[in-house]
Amino acid sequence: MSKITVSIALSLLLGASAVTANSDNMAESLMKLRAQVEQLDSSITDEKENYRASMKSLLRQKDDLESIVAREDLKIKQIEQELAKVKQEITEGSKNSLGLKPLLENALTLLEENVKASLPFKTQERLADIAQIKEQIQNDLVSPQKGLALTWNAYGDAIRMTKENGLFKQTITLGGKDKLAEVARIGTMMMYFKTPDNVVGYANKDAKGWYYKEAVSKEEQEQILYLFDSFKKQIRTGYFTLPNAIVMGENK
User: Fold this and answer.
1) Using an 8 Å Cβ cutoff, are 111 and 130 in contact?
2) DSSP code for 139
């Protein structure tokens, strides 16, 4: 075999080896790309499922919020109706001072019941204020007209609370211990708390009454801390993502 023939044969062999190597590389690359596509497709599917779950959760929260707002609107209307009724009764009773006294006492009793059932915001202080007015009226320490003015003011405070958002301080019972805490109150719908050592949570209610529930997940803790930070910056309106502290039933 001549040198030229040998050279050509070697070139053909080397070329065939290169084609085979390239084919193997392409096959391996295609397999990697196919695996990446499958992984991306799986990730997209997971994201879609997560999105659907998030939307369902948000829609449930929206329905809960609409329900509680409707209940709060109804509560305000009921208080206003009670106030209008009491006004009418007092207008009739005020023609005779003796008839005014029992009407005022009854109006204050109704307000006491409302305070006991509503959000546990400074409950003892509010009840003490009402009891003091009632005692003054019962013992004739104020005139019927003065008692009437004090009763109107007490009802006005109850209505104002339903429309007020803000930061306050009060003693709460958490883990069987009384603690002075900051509270962020949203009308009379929801109330969140933060202790000096940054334990956060919200007021909830069961068959036994009101209690304070600690937020244990990091996500809920961050949401509540953000609410307190916003309130301190005087940001009282806007969109907030918060743990569902709306009382929808009697069970924990």
Assistant:
1) yes
2) T
pTM, rounded to two decimals: 0.61
Q: Give all strands of the β-sheet with 165-174 in edge-to-edge order.
A: 165-174, 177-186, 190-194, 200-206, 209-214
pLDDT tens, residue order, the chain (252 aa):
444 554 554 454 545 555 555 566 666 766 777 777 777 777 777 777 777 776 776 677 667 667 766 777 777 777 777 777 766 766 665 555 667 888 899 999 999 999 999 999 999 999 999 999 999 998 889 888 888 899 999 999 998 988 888 899 999 999 889 999 999 998 888 899 999 988 999 999 888 889 999 998 999 999 999 999 998 988 767 677 777 766 544 433
Cβ distance 183 to 173 under 8 Å?
A: no
CA–chain centroid gap for 227, Å, is 10
The two tokens of residue 216 are: 């244990």
Q: Which of the 8 DSSP states describes residue 248?
A: -
Instruction: Give, in order, the Cα–Cα distances in Å from 62 to each of 7, 94, 151, 165, 185.
Output: 81, 47, 37, 19, 19
- State the DSSP code for 168: E
Angle at 115 between CA 109 and CA 121, to 5 degrees: 155
Query: Which residue, chain included where needed, has tokens 């080896």?
Result: 17
- HEC profile of 101-131: HHHHHHHHHHHHHHHHHCCCCCHHHHHHHHH
Which has the closest alpha carbon to 179: 191, 192, 204, 196? 196
Alpha carbons within 13 A on the beta-carbon side of 211? 15
Rounded CA-CA distance 56/180 in Å is 37
For residue 143, give the 3-state DSSP assignment: coil
